[in-house]
Structure formats: C-alpha cells, structure tokens
C-alpha cells in the first residue's frame, strides 16, 4: 500500500485528578456516537505533539502540554490505513469544551471500557492502563 492511502492521526489521553477525558463523536462523520480520545490528523511538516497541541486547541479550546507517548494502533478503514498515536496530557490551561464533539465526560480509566469506544481507541486505553 502506498503512503498516499495512509493517514497519521494523534489522540490525547487527557488526565486530571486521576480521571480520563472521553469525547463523543458528533452525528456527522465516521463512527458517529462512539466515544474516543480527542485529537486529529497530523498535517504535513508537523510533529505528532505539534499536531495534537493544535487539534486540542481547535476541538476542546485548551492549551495542552503534550506529555509521554503511550502507544500506537493501525487500522484499515475502507481504502485507507489509519495510524493512531496516543499521547498523555496531564497539564493544560483552559476548560475542555466540546467544540466538535456532542459530549465530553470524565471517567475513572477502567470505567472507559463501559462506553462505546471507537475500536482503535480500545488498545490505546489498554496500553495506558498497563503503564
């Protein structure tokens, strides 16, 4: 498969007071209604942390400090291979606001499994819990 069909995507595992932030996808777009770790596409010339910092400002209106790398997961969706990379965020300014999602919720990390998570996010949650 050529790289034109590969998409690099970053996701934030945002933790505050031991609680993990989940975001519910809006009705428009892929996997609507499923819960995910917020983030988005890495643009040309951006590092993963730069992309994640930009996406979190655009999606949640927070200025995040991108912490440790957690894990990656690759999925083939239709004609494309999506490489999803999770990063830890424990420090940010502003209050997370759902600018792109229908809902946000803070949960105990193991409790996140009880939500309808986007399939690619499940191995990332498992990797986080094994840290």
From TrEMBL:
Coiled-coil segments: none
Keyword Cytoplasm on entry: no
Record InterPro entries: MutT-like (IPR047127), Nudix_hydrolase (IPR020476), NUDIX_hydrolase-like_dom_sf (IPR015797), NUDIX_hydrolase_dom (IPR000086)
Cofactor needs: Mg(2+)
Annotated ranges, domain Nudix hydrolase: 5-130
SUPFAM superfamilies, per the entry: Nudix
One MF annotation (Gene Ontology) recorded for this entry: 8-oxo-7,8-dihydrodeoxyguanosine triphosphate pyrophosphatase activity
Alphabetically ordered keywords of this record: Hydrolase, Magnesium
GO biological process, one term: DNA repair
Pfam families, A to Z: NUDIX
Gene3D superfamilies, sorted: Nucleoside Triphosphate Pyrophosphohydrolase
Domain of life: Bacteria
Family per record: Belongs to the Nudix hydrolase family.
Name of the featured protein: NTP pyrophosphohydrolase
Origin species: Pantoea coffeiphila
């Amino acid at each position: 498969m050529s790289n034109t069909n590969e998409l690099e995507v970053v996701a934030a595992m945002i933790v505050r007071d031991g609680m993990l932030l989940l975001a519910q996808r809006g009705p428009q777009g892929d996997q609507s209604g499923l819960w995910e770790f917020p983030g988005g596409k890495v643009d040309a010339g951006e590092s993963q942390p730069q992309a994640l910092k930009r996406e979190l400002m655009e999606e949640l209106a927070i200025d995040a400090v991108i912490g440790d790398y957690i894990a990656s997961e690759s999925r083939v969706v239709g004609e494309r291979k999506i490489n999803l990379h999770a990063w830890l965020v424990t420090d940010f300014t502003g209050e997370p606001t759902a600018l792109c999602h229908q809902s946000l919720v803070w949960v105990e990390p193991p409790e996140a499994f009880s939500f309808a998570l986007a399939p690619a996010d499940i191995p990332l949650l498992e990797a986080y819990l094994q840290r």
